[in-house]
Design goal:
Layout: E1 3-6, H1 12-23, H2 31-50, H3 52-55, E2 63-71, E3 76-84, E4 89-95, E5 100-104, E6 109-114, E7 117-121, H4 124-141, E8 149-155, E9 161-162, E10 170-172, H5 176-180, H6 191-199, H7 208-211, E11 234-236, E12 239-241, E13 248-249, H8 252-264, E14 267-268, H9 270-277, H10 282-291, E15 295-297, E16 304-306
Parallel strand pairs: 1-2, 4-8, 5-9, 8-10
Antiparallel strand pairs: 2-3, 3-4, 5-6, 6-7, 11-12, 12-13, 14-16, 15-16
Bound molecules: zinc ion.
Amino acid sequence: MPITIKPRTKSTELSKLETLARRLPARHPSAPRINDDLAQTRAGYHGEQSIEYYLHTAPASAHLLHDLRLKGPHNYFQLDLLIITASTLHIIEIKNIAGTIHYDPRTGQATRTLAGQTERIRNPLHQIKRQHAALSHWLSARAHPQLPIHTTVIFTNPDTILDTNCPAEFHQSEQLPELFQHYDPDTVPHTELSRDLAQSHKPLNRNLLEKYKIDRHALTRGVYCAHCESRLMQRQRYLWRCPSCAHTSRTAHHTALNEYALLFGNTITNKQAREFLNIRSRTTARTLLRSMRLVHNGKQSNRVYYLK
Ligand SMILES: [Zn+2]
């Protein structure tokens, strides 16, 4: 069992997309694009989770770093999985794409055919070449030893077919154990390098309302019922109550405020909390925010609370 230096976690970007998709009315012009991006991000995450089983077959000495995002010379670059051994670095780009993957070596175009429809996809070969160059630059900029870097694209969907023109770098999940056999299992990699990589990770944290040009007032406000998911709860004395299923909760606003933080950032005022939670009383808002023991700053109406 290899050593996980940086584990895979659900990305903030995915949580943000989920929140946005839930709170944006279906009729909003940006809704289809957001739903597409959400489906793609989710598929990517599931694809990464699905190779877990095969990673057990890597040598016990290998180091695994999942979802690394590092600053390159011009912009950030992202690696789905980096496997470090004593003698090599192995970049694994993970693709969860259903259908038949075609590749034209002459034009460098990659397409996928699914249910009779062919569409162009981003060329994964270009992608791993860029990652290779960026990682190599990163290593030399930080004075790390220049180990040979290998690159592989893993297609995780069990129904995916790779056509015979696909480059040698394209593989399917079940071929991973075979690839791991080329590793040197006996020597231990440099912990220093793995640690520096993990510590240099810069998570993607962007404002999706700006990205999709969505006015904050277009979003549904209120506290969702944890039971029936799509219904908003009403504030009654000391409780949230769902008018639909009668579920009650004392803490349902925690989830809502977490969603607020994902959409608007981690500071909130009493007024903003009232607006977002759909409550009228200033006192109730203060009680709810205080009960969460949030760090705060300022006095009276200028008070700002810091959401975690
Ligand atoms: Zn309910």
